[in-house]
Amino acid sequence: MTATMYRHAQALAVLAALALAGCSSPVKLDEPPVETRNPNAGGAGAGAGGATSGTSQSQVGNVDLSANAANTLGKVVYFDFDSFVVKDEYRPIVDGYSKQLSTDRKKRVVVEGHTDERGGREYNLALGQKRAEAVAKSLTLLGVQDAQVESVSYGKERPAATGSDEAAWAKNRRAELRDR
Q1: What is the per-residue pLDDT across 159-180, written as a single tens digit (0 to 9) for each?
Q2: CATH number, domain containing residue 92
């Protein structure tokens, strides 16, 4: 073994030892971290010079997951051209549906994937399916059961807007969530 190879082997051994040592930290996973904040201290915690009082009031409101709340949620996720990536601006829609579906395990949803008129029929059916599956995968990653979500593609067959301009195309590049 040459000296260079020996040094590489030593470096790898040291890195492996450091990695294993990092995995054995004494963090207790059953105890949630506690952070005390004073809402009047501009976001500074007690350790950063903020004073803490004995009481705190929560600014968090309750979420209504009833059928009326479903009507206030958006039902359409729009996509960029030739893309099936769910954009961050549509996360509230996915989050809202995941909460509803996780709360009521009997509820089902169909995710319909759509495309604009450009491209061939087979390509658009495949892209619509990828869009529907991307939304469905986002739901399942948030705790929804696979059996509650069905993905279907209509490609360019069911446009939301007619026309051959960017405004119409943008409205047609979508995935719609429909209760089943």
Answers
A1: 999 999 999 999 999 999 999 8
A2: 3.30.1330.60
